[in-house]
Amino acid sequence: MASAHDKEVLRTILNPLMPSGEMADIEEDAPIDHPGIDECRKLEQEGILLAEGKTNLPRAIELFTKAIEACPLASSAFNNRAQAMQLSGRPEEAFYDLNESIRLSGGKGRSACQAFTQRAMIYRLRDDRDSAKRDFESAASLGSSFARMQLAMMNPYAAMCNAALAKVMGELKGGNAN
After folding, report:
1. Which domains does the chain have, with CATH numbers?
2. Burial 111-144, CB ≥16 within 10 A → b, else e
């Protein structure tokens, strides 16, 4: 199993906009009782190491596929493969794995939170604002501060308030306040 530091490094690489430490308060995935789970976790870790460097994403995807074959109940393996596919510029293939990760996780835990967030980003690429908002809401309810930030950015009133606040703060910093 990966250390907390290893997991944080991977999250930072695969989700560069996500605040560091963001997943600390999110519920762990439910334990999986399957004879292939140990092999699955081993293959996932190998894939994660390759995906971290972004130098051999095809091999990382291959390892995640083998992990899924070893334990088809592991939502994290589907989520990890989806992340590698997105990094490879294959969002439509990633979309299938994100759906499967959410289904297997029952919409709970770290894998679901990450899958909802990534699927929301694909919806945004498709200009499907309503679906993106629903998935960001799901991820936010699971504890994702990144998803909460995205929801705020999608709210036009919040965007106006943030712009006004930024202007005031800039004027205060510049000494232009009355």
Report:
1. 4-144 (1.25.40.10)
2. bbbbbbbbbbbbbbeeeeeeebbebbbbbbebbb
